[in-house]
Amino acid sequence: MKILANDGISQSGIDTLEKSGFEVITTTVAQEQLENYINKNDISVLLVRSATQVRKNLIDACPNIKIIGRGGVGMDNIDVEYAREKGIKVINTPAASSHSVAELVFGHLYGLSRFLHNANRDMPLEGDSNFKALKKAYAKGTELKGKTLGVLGFGRIGQATAKVAIGAGMKVVAFDPYLEKANLKLEFFDGQSLDFEIETISKEAVLKQSDFISLHVPYQNEYVIDEKEFSTMKDGVILVNAARGGVINEVALVKAIESGKVARAALDVFEKEPQPEIQLLMNSALSLTPHIGAATNEAQDRIGVELASQIINILK
Ligand code: NAD
Questions:
Q1: Active-site entry in 103, 117, 227, 291
Q2: Distance 258 CA to ligand 1 centre (A)
Q3: What is the phi/psi pair of residue 285, to 5°?
């Protein structure tokens, strides 16, 4: 049976599938040529990430497709319900990238608390001529240890982030309207493990108590952080959004930075992707990454293997 991984798949995923007798094709076929390619090559499984669109017309035009697989979480690019109505299995890999996103959040948090985002912008330009002034400008760093991290959305990534926070010596408070508590197992290098039970509290309490706030909610119709929420936060809070563009009101964020309510913030996701607002890109209080939360070799490996084992379970 043939599998087209149109947006790529890890070598470990290919190996697992080939061992079970599948042929894996990793050519990237242009969107408008997909229908023709799939039918001509008798493809049974179509694997995508976020680039390839799998809409009703493609599903209708390719009756031999048995599985549509999304390497990653969000399936906005697939007409999932329609495919399922037609008897096609639609699978994804929701857990594979959680720890990678959590580590990116901490990359931003450690960077922001020591001004690394600014120092990295300034050192190439002024590091030789203005060293002492830069040293002074970035002297008032803070430690994360002993501080409170507020997690909004306590699902897979929220919990993975909480584990890293606990490991870093932080207190964790969390809000999730659909979850009362979660058990977190922290696993250490020598085989020891420790269990933590975290009970969620109200959104307001999280906003009021937190020195640092990280968002891990799904996309929704309303902003999760807007002017009202900013006004509830501690003065000088540091914020990270590695969830979805549109969960923070970006205009309200810039205002909150200008007023000093938010000291600094990090964005991995934007309301306008792939062309974020220039006011965000040029804002020196922001640490910025181009939606790379899940983009680690380890996550891609886990995604490939997880997709492969689901395909093998369904078809073998
Ligand atoms: P998840 O479904 O496991 O967890 C989301 C949690 O948010 C759920 O427990 C849900 O009850 C809770 N929630 C829903 N509405 C809420 C609200 N208004 N306030 C507080 N909590 C709310 O999802 P996940 O796998 O943890 O993913 C979280 C987010 O991260 C998603 O938006 C996902 O798209 C995003 N993500 C980003 C990247 C990246 O590259 N930056 C990578 C993967 C996932």
A1: 291
A2: 28
A3: -85, 0
Mean pLDDT, 10 residues at a time, the chain of 316 residues: 97 97 97 98 96 97 98 92 98 95 98 98 98 98 98 98 98 98 98 98 98 96 98 98 97 98 98 97 98 95 96 95
CATH superfamily of 2-94+297-315: NAD(P)-binding Rossmann-like Domain (3.40.50.720)
Whether 268 is in the pocket of ligand 1, judged by its Cβ within 6 Å, is yes
At 189, list the tokens.
């290098």
φ/ψ of 186, rounded to 5, equals -95, 125
Residue 242 Cβ contacting ligand 1 at under 6 Å: yes
Q: State the number of CA atoms in the 13 A half-sphere of 227 facing the CB.
A: 4
Q: What pTM does this model have? A: 0.92
Q: Is the CB of 156 under 6 A from ligand 1?
A: yes
